[in-house]
Amino acid sequence: MILRELVKNLDCELVQGSLDTEVVTVENDSRRVIPGALFFCVTGAVFDGHQYVADVADKGASVVVVEKDVDLQGHDTLTIIKVKSTRYAMGMICSAYYGEPSQKLTVVGITGTKGKTTTTYMIKSMLEASGHKTGLIGTIESIVGGKVTPASNTTPESIVIQRTLYEMVEAGLDSVVMEVSSQGLMLDRVAGIDFDYGIFTNLSEDHIGPNEHKDFEEYLGWKAKLFTLCKTGIFNIDDMYCKDILKNHTCDVITYGEKDGADYQAENLNLYKKDGELGITYHLEGKYKADVRVSLPGEFSVHNSLAAIAVAKEMGVPMDKILDILTHIHVKGRVELIPISDAFTILIDYAHNAMSLESILTTLRAYHPKRLISLFGCGGNRSKVRRYEMGEVSGKLADFTIITSDNPRDEEPQAIVDDIKIGIGKTKGEYVEIIDRKEAIRYAIMNAKEGDVIVLAGKGHEDYQEIKGKKYHMDERDLIKEVLEEEDVTQICGYNNRYFA
Question: Which residue, of 40, 71, 97, is where some domain finishes?
Answer without folding.
Answer: 97
